[in-house]
Amino acid sequence: MKAMKGQRVYWFAFYLVCAVQLFPGISKTSAQISVVNPSFEGTSQAHVVPSPWSRCEGSGTPDTQPGQWGINLAPSDGNTYISCLYDGSGNHGWIEGASQQLSSPLLAGITYEVSFDLAFTNIYNTAEPLGCYGSFEFMGGWGLCNNTQSFYQSGQITHTGWQTYNIQFTPALAFTHIYVRPYFITSCGGYINIMIDNMTNVTVLDPCQNTTLAATSTSSNATCGLSNGSATVTATGGDVPYSYNWSTGQAGSTALGLAAGNYHITVTDANSCTVVLAVTVIDNGSIMPTIGTIINETCQTGNDGSIDLQISGGNGPFTYQWSNGATVQDPTGLSAGSYSVTITDAANCQGFTNATVTFGTPGGVFGLWMWQGNYSDDWFDPCNWDKLTVPTLTSNVLIPGGTPNNPAIRAGTGLCKFITINHSNAGHLNIEFFAGGKMIRQP
Questions:
Q1: What total number of domains does the chain contain?
Q2: DSSP H helix total and E strand total for the chain
Q3: 189 and 219, same domain (yes or no)
Q4: What is the CATH number of the domain that holds 39?
Q5: pLDDT in tens, 372-423
Q6: Where are the beta strands (DSSP E) in 364-403?
Q7: What is the pLDDT of residues 117-155, one digit of tens each?
């Protein structure tokens, strides 16, 4: 029963906690903890709380409203709600509250969110406010009505219409039960009261919803096409310590040995909040040399070949070191042979390539060796023949008129298959044979 106006009932409660409870299978990532009958639905009657809620404190019993003790405020949700009293004379007076066991325990250190619709009433027959106020306290413990930790206290409530109170709380320990009631703030002449309706399920509050975790990065570029770049991330905000996970698999705030490319880093703080940052490492430019036009040596002793070296990438200016000692980009005056070059740029990166200079391209009619005599009169100098080789016993030879030099065989044996001597240029043409020189034609 309610205490009649002017009546005071005092009570004392003693708790002895002698057990340790373990809660397997509870995950920090559980999104919600269900509350059974959160809207306090039942039959309107005095001294009864709807199931599975249980009355608390022994001396007082909440009422299922509306319709009891002159209270006719319509529910904010469903059909019924509960009303609770607290003696305004002090902390050890009449107290009414309700409690229930949760579907799964609250975990220590996790932030949760829940809401209630609350209201105060100026009319409470036999337990009038008489200048008192409304108040609301939300608590947790290890059994029905256990109030080991107070999660929330509203302060004085005087509004007589429903208002929603959103509550965020963090248990210091793992708790299995919740408990709601009014609470004492200051002395007053009557009874403190509170109407409670439309409780929500208890939701795990995402600790990252309003996180200040952020990250910035700097990078050191790779050089010379090598994997020698690096990147560093700096984390701020959130809760330390931070952990780092690079897309390369490296951990720590700095990643080393990076080639040019795109990377990402995931920074995680102590609340498992994350921020992902993209990092780009560029290459100062590897040297990519290519060989353009090669002008071959016209003949064996011409020394008139050249190489056109082309450069892409790298950072100029460049220096060149050819295997023949040349230090220019495009060497000239080359004889037939193989050449290599080392190119070094301003970042001390190096590139390498090589090229081959050959004799000039043979010309003339297929199968016919024509004397040109451009270099000398020596029959055995390949530069004097259009094929750039000396005739053999299978070669058809043409000695035209008007050449700069007539052929001469000073020593050795000149060979041919057939030979035609043309002196149609109003002059004569001789093949001179010096001592020891001779000629053999294929029979």
A1: 4
A2: 0, 30
A3: no
A4: 2.60.120.260
A5: 888 888 998 888 888 888 999 998 999 887 888 889 888 888 899 888 887 6
A6: 368-370, 396-399
A7: 999 999 999 899 999 999 999 999 999 999 999 999 999
